[in-house]
Every structure is written in structure tokens, then in C-alpha cells.
């Protein structure tokens, strides 16, 4: 098994208005943006400085007709996309886009876990994946959060697929237990059982910024909204959950208020 198996390696926004989304995230996070030069559709590479971290693309009418929804999706590196996709299907998950090749890049599939949270698989082949950035690097994703129907069975599913391990379990009172999980021995995210009134299970990605209040100001100035927060978490960091102008949810994390 490679060192990259089970690591989040790419983040992608599918949006109904690509130019507006590009302007918003450039203003809020400061990503550099460059057209990928794909032959069949426009695809914008998002970079933190010189480091590519994800992509942005517009949903076509055909995509929407087929059931695609605007939002962020995370790509998890695996050694064998087809084999892992088959295991997901066997475990009661969904194959939303069967495994296929990205010429010169790798192989991918879009899948859903047995509780309905959507994510992607990515195999980079002989090229390997890019090593992770230093923790806290602005513009990179610093935390991965799953709002599950049932956190315990959700964790068991991902641990079996990717080798993720249990970290600290944080008692959040009426909200229940927030289960931190580790990837490669390092804390990488958390899982919790969502409240009954919340939407279907989903993954939420926290982007590193320098200061949370200044970032909130940029969100509002650029036409986004704060959905929850800011809050200070046990390690001292500050977080906020937001909606972009197309109502796609994302989150921010910073070392200071």
C-alpha cells in the first residue's frame, strides 16, 4: 500500500456560475487561478501560492439533468480506484460516476458512502500524489468533517477502506460526540452524528486562513453568508461555516480570531 492511500489530495467545486464562484473565492481565500486547458470543458485550477489544491468547474445542463448538485467534493487517494469502488458498492455505497481516466493525470470515480455522503476516489498511477502541505498553510484544506447519519458506522466504513484510525472523542454535550480521526497518524478531521433537522449526510472542508474575523469580513463583502460561528475549538483555533453566493457550503479555520 502506498503512503498516499487514504489521504485527501484534491478538492473540487462544481458550481452553477463559474465566473462568479472564481471571483468570490479569489477575494475570500486568495487562491491563484489558471485554466487547465481541458479539451472538453472549462476547468480552473485553484492554487495556494504555487501549490495546486483543487479545481472549479461549471455544471452543465446535462450534469444537472443527471442529478449532479452544486458543492464541494474531496478526492481521496487510493492505490486501485476500481477495486475500492467495487468494495464501496459491496458495502452498500453508491457509484455515482464509474471509474474513468483523466488523460495524463490519473483515474477517478465519484462515489457515495452507505449513508449518502459523496466523495471521490483518485489514483495517480506511477506519478504518485503530491506530498501534503505543512499544517496550517493558508489556502490549503486543514480539516475534513463528516456530518453522518451515524458516526460510528460511518467511521467503520472509512476505516475499513482507507485505514483511518480513531483519535480523541470530544463530548459536545447535547450535540453528542465529535470523533476525531487520524490519517497516517496525524489528526485530519472529525465525524459526528448530524442533527435530525440537518440536510443529508455530507463532507465539509475547512480552508486555512490567517485570521477568522478578517476572513468573515471578506466573505460578506464578496456576497457570501455566515451559516455558523465563529467558534473557538479545543485546540485554540477559530472556525466558521459559510455559504458562497451560490449557496455552496464551505468552512474556514484560523489560528487566531
Describe the protein in words.
It is globular, with a radius of gyration of 17 Å. The model has no long low-confidence stretch (mean pLDDT 93). The protein has an eight-stranded mixed sheet, covered by helices on one side. An eight-stranded mixed sheet has the order 10-11-12-9-13-16-15-14, with helices on one face. By secondary structure, the protein is an alpha+beta fold. The chain has helices at residues 18-29, 61-65, 81-90, 151-162, 212-221; strands at residues 8-15, 32-35, 44-48, 51-58, 71-77, 94-102, 106-112, 118-123, 141-148, 165-171, 177-183, 186-193, 202-208, 225-232, 238-243, 249-254. It has two domains: 8-127, 2,3-Dihydroxybiphenyl 1,2-Dioxygenase, domain 1, CATH 3.10.180.10; 141-254, 2,3-Dihydroxybiphenyl 1,2-Dioxygenase, domain 1. α1 packs antiparallel against α5 (212-221). The longest helix is centred in the N-terminal third of the chain and has 12 residues, at 18-29. This is VOC family protein. It comes from Gluconacetobacter azotocaptans. InterPro entries: Anthracycline_SecMetBiosynth, Glyas_Bleomycin-R_OHBP_Dase, Glyas_Fos-R_dOase_dom, VOC_core.
Q: Which structural class matches the secondary elements?
A: alpha+beta
Overall outline: globular
Whole-number count of domains: 2
Note the beta-strand portion. Answer: 35-45%
What CATH calls the topology of the largest domain is 2,3-Dihydroxybiphenyl 1,2-Dioxygenase, domain 1
- Give the mean pLDDT: 93
| Global Rg | 17 Å
Q: Tell me about the biggest sheet?
A: 8 strands, mixed
Which runs of at least 5 residues are low in confidence (pLDDT < 50)?
A: none
The CATH top-level class label of the largest domain: Alpha Beta
